Structure formats: C-alpha cells, structure tokens
C-alpha cells in the first residue's frame, strides 16, 4: 500500500509552521571549533528562510536546555519578521559551547515540547543537531525515553549528526518515535546547504496529518501497520469511527510513502480460489482549512488456497522490505565484528560482502555507495583499513533508509466490466456501512456479502 500527498493550492501555500531549532552546545562541540561554527552558520541560514509570520525559537542544549531566542525572559515563540530574524541570527552568532556541559537530549526535546504545546500551528517541527551520544541521560532531569513518550504525536523531529562521534542508532531512535528523518554531514561545511534544503522542503509541507483508516470485516484482526518507505516506522493505532482503526502519519509534502498492513483471519469455512475481503482501507485528513484530493477507499482482498506454491509467493513490496532488513542486519553484524579488531576481521568482511550483494539486488544506489565507501577495493568485498567509527555511523543511517523499486509496476488497465461509477461508495443494505464500491463484504456490523454470485 502506498499513499501520496495531494498539495492544495500553489507550491509553498502550505499550513502555518511552528519551528524549533536546537543546537548542541555541549563541551564536545569545542573540538574542533569548526563544528560549532558550522552549526551556527546553518542555524542562521535556516532562520533567514522562515517566512513572515512563522512562529519559531532557537534552543541550545547541553546538560540542560535554554532558549537562545526569543530569550529566556520572553514567553512562547518569536514570530518571524525582519527584526526578529535579525535578532535571532545575532543571538545564534553569540552562542558558545559550555566547557562543563554534557549531553542530555531528553531535556532539549522536553523544552521544545513545552514551547510548542499551546501553539495552534498545524505543522510543528523540531530540527535537532548533535555531535554526541546522549552520555548524561541517566543524570538528566528528564530521560530521553520519558521525553519521547511525552513528545510523541506533539511534533515532528528531524535529527542530524555532525563531527566524528555521533550515534546513528540514537538519531534513528528519536526520529522513528517522532515521525522525522535522521541525517548527518560528512564535512562540517556541508551543513548549511543541508539545512537550507531541509527547511525549503519543510516549507512545502501541504498536509500536516494523514490518517490511514482500516475497517476489518468480522473475524479479521489488525496485527500491525507500519511505514516501510522511505524508512521503517511503526504506526500506533487510534480509535476511528465504527469498527475502524486509524493510524496517524504526519507532515506530508509532495511525496510518496509506502505502508505495510498485517492482518490475521481464520480461513475455516471460507471459499477457496476466489477473492475475499478482509478489510477496507481509506485515507482521511482532519480538517485544517484546505481541501485535499484523496484516493477512493479500497478493499483488502485475499485468496485462500490449499496450494503450497501459491501460499509461498510473496508480494514484491514485502520481498523488498525483507531484503532491506537482511542488508541492515548484515551491516550491524559487520560493525560489531569490526569493533573486535583483528579477531572480527573475517566476520566483518563476510557480512560486508553479504550487504553488498543485497544492496545490488535492491538496486539501491545510495546504500551501494555507502557500502563501497568502506570497501577496500571495488568488488573485493573486504573492509578497508583506516576506517573511523563515524564511517560506520553513516553506513548505519544509509541502511535504515528504504526506497521503492526504480520501475514500479504500472497500474492495471481498467476492467471493462466495471461501470464508470465504481468510484462511488457502496452502502450496505443491512447495516448502512459505507465502503468501497468494489467491496466483496460489508465492513460494518453485519459482515454480509455485498458483491459476487451469492450477494
């Protein structure tokens, strides 16, 4: 299953934004000084891009968090305008790292949550930059896990690494919980351009929230729903109307995302060899003041079979996701073996070769490029000498990003037997449930057959 945002209005005519920029000012940002200089340059560039009227704040984070702009004595967020942007840039330029400051990211996120909590902007976003490993979490006023619990669903967070000592798993942990994306720069000088691209894309956000609504037929159980492209992300359920369950996805621009739904049903007594409906799926958007063009609801169909060959066939999208899981696991094993030095060299080489083979099968050029950066010679399948830990962190981030097939299958031609009005909803005569016009069974309370020979 995939979903794509339909942008209302003209490009850039998205909903209002509230933005919080967090700069790591822990002790480690002093070594080398280029990290802090790059962080200040990039943050200033991001502030300058904020449109008139955008609510924003800049925070510094070390063992504690502090408001850099609009200042600790100013309640709430600043509102972007020529004067406020210039004042924020001046405040950023004066930032310095705390010589006694550690890293406690939970306190940074919690301050961002408190600033954004009562703001009415439909899109709330945090851009976090760190060079460290959250080493003082156990002593912090709020641990990262507690902060993530409090922040989940409150805003979207992108987390970036800079320098040579950031932790890819930490960035992924934050962004998977807060529906953002993790990134990093190899050179400090690249950060400003990366921030400008990220903020420009953010300003193109058209829809603050899309919901995937699943209505199972009687006897069907929803096991899980997750995003699989552009990165894996578990979606949490919320109550929907009737028997439906809704899964929230956040902050959409012009993009396509793929999702995987896992359902369970008992085939006992079901017909063999014909399509049966297990659920109806639709995309809904809360009212935020703009009309959005949505795809029509669709049935989720299965065909029960006694043929083991048929039952063993996997959907191409599921197979692709399994390849990504195997590639990511091979990268993780290679890294753990590399940490053991010469004792793990053979295992590390073997796992690198495995990951390279899987990346080639996937046809993912970004993952292949990241793997070849740690390969000794092209095609050799051996890890080069002189690697740094940060080289592996970049690879771990790359292995967590997923892509759809380069040549997705074309949409099937329309069925000449389906009347032109098949896009309309069908009302069940038994219980009044509204669902896709091609539903085989009612997704409401009665579960009766709606289409087919015995309807």
UniProtKB/TrEMBL annotation:
It holds the Pfam family VWA_3. Residues 20-182 form the VWFA domain. InterPro entries: VWF_A, vWFA_dom_sf. This is VWA domain-containing protein. It comes from Streptomyces graminearus.
